[in-house]
Specification:
76% of the residues lie in helices and 1% in strands. It is built from seven helices and two strands; from the N terminus they run ααααααββα. The longest helix is centred in the middle third of the chain and has 51 residues. It is elongated.
Length: 289
């Protein structure tokens, strides 16, 4: 990414790279904020509740089910445990949010570089009374394409098995949270349970969607490279110069993708597969209830 920023020598490159960076910043802030709000909304009721520590007949309400090896006999001890639980959940939420945000940042940066490359392809053929070296420009475009391919491979290597973990865990989480929401209907504290579960259900769906959309977006952007090369005014070039575009078109036919553990491509179709699998497992759980 540093090399790409250093290579921004014209106004188009600078503007496009800055635009993607600002977009990434907004999305990252929104995702982390949403994770934080979800955890705060889930924990705030228990933290602010007035609990009688002296009442040993009832189990003390905790944010998570814990087997604490000490006896909680004072309010301060109880509050410290709640605060530690809350901070732990906040850190986990931030870790998940930052992981998702970083993926989107990398994908948006790649998309920005593809947009720059497309602009260079559109401007490849010189206008009337304009002189420039076609071979030099084509060489710059090919090197940019190679950088984009290498960068996308690095993203794939970094996130492939993270995506596999997310794919499996999100399927289980969506199924489990859906089961909690359905079974909570009709219970005395149904509204509270549904709201708590629904917030995490939304976040889990968002995580799955982010990974799948990132793969779909990268794939669609890579297709635009070949289309841009074909749609430029190659017919005004010499045959020796236009042949160079064939290499770009041929290479762009092998689309850039993100995979789930090197097994399947991440796409919106993958997201529907997650939802279908979760729905099927939920039906089984409800039937076994």
């Amino acid at each position: 990414m540093t090399e790409d920023w250093n290579d921004c020598t014209d106004s188009i490159s600078i503007r496009e790279t800055e635009r993607k960076a600002k977009m990434s910043d907004r999305i990252a802030n929104a995702i982390v904020t949403l994770h934080t709000m979800t955890i705060v909304a889930y924990c705030i009721g228990i933290i602010l509740a007035d609990v009688d520590i002296a009442n040993t007949t009832e189990e003390l309400p905790l944010i998570n089910k814990l087997d604490i090896p000490i006896n909680i006999t004072t309010q301060s001890t109880y509050r410290i445990i709640l605060i530690v639980e809350f901070l732990f959940m906040i850190l986990c939420g931030w870790a998940a949010g930052i992981t998702n945000s970083f993926l989107l940042t990398l994908i948006l940066h790649t998309a920005g570089q593809i947009e720059i490359m497309r602009y260079w392809l559109v401007q490849l053929v010189p206008r009337k009374n304009e002189t420039k070296s076609i071979a030099k420009t084509t060489n710059k475009i090919i090197r940019k394409h190679q950088k984009i391919i290498g960068f996308s491979k690095n993203i794939e290597n970094l996130y492939s098995y993270i995506a596999l973990l997310q794919f499996v865990s999100n399927t289980i989480m969506i199924c489990s949270l859906g089961f909690l929401i359905v079974t909570a209907i009709g219970s005395p504290n149904a509204l509270e349970q549904i709201l708590k579960s629904f917030l995490f259900y939304t976040i889990t769906n968002l995580e799955a969607f982010i990974f799948c959309y990132a793969g779909e977006y990268l794939n669609n952007k890579s297709k635009e490279i070949g289309a841009a090369a074909y749609n430029c005014a190659w017919y005004d070039l010499k045959s020796t110069e236009s042949r160079l575009l064939l290499f770009i078109i041929l290479r762009s036919q092998k689309q850039l993708t993100l995979t789930v553990g090197k097994m399947m491509d991440l796409s919106l179709q993958s997201f529907t597969s997650i939802m279908n699998a979760s729905g099927s497992y939920l039906s089984v759980l409800l039937a076994m209830q």
